[in-house]
Amino acid sequence: MKTGMKSIFLLGMVVLMAACNSNQKTEDSHEGHDHSQEAPAAVSSALTASVKIKDDKLNAVYQHYIHLTTALTNDNTAEAKVAASAIEIGAKQIDGGATLAKAAAEITESKDIEAQRTTYASLSSEFISLLKKAGVDSGELYISHCPMALNDKGADWVSNSKEIRNPYFGESMLTCGSVKETIK
């Protein structure tokens, strides 16, 4: 019980530290890509709160996963590190969460947003697997896919909205992708 309370306290501290971090952005070139449907990224904590995953520990990690996704969408490496650190702590509390924790640690250690995004693909794949095993109590989650991510190999991510906000290209190609599956 004490370990669980310590973990919750640490997760809370990481979130509080996020508010104190400065924005760090990097510029990327995506020549030859269609940027015609760009739109500003938005964070929606109300949507995050409306989804409840059956596994409480995974539900806590989900909150930080959305934070990480938003940070990458906003091209913010520093905020991505904060969110990934919280995921790492939470994933260590989940049965079968070691791979998720390892990927989160790699994002935390990375200084380059492209490296963070590459590792995010692995992290997302593992998160989707855990999410499908656990199931959702309430709300809907969307598995979105960007066919151009990872040098046109494609990659998925979990979203709490049908609206595409691409974490693999961020603000340079915000709406690239589509919803491929809904988890209810």
UniProtKB/TrEMBL annotation:
<dbReference type="Pfam" id="PF11827">
    <property type="entry name" value="DUF3347"/>
</dbReference>
<feature type="signal peptide">
    <location>
        <begin position="1"/>
        <end position="18"/>
    </location>
</feature>
<keyword id="KW-0732">Signal</keyword>
<feature type="domain" description="DUF3347">
    <location>
        <begin position="61"/>
        <end position="138"/>
    </location>
</feature>
<protein>
    <submittedName>
        <fullName>Uncharacterized protein DUF3347</fullName>
    </submittedName>
</protein>
<dbReference type="InterPro" id="IPR021782">
    <property type="entry name" value="DUF3347"/>
</dbReference>
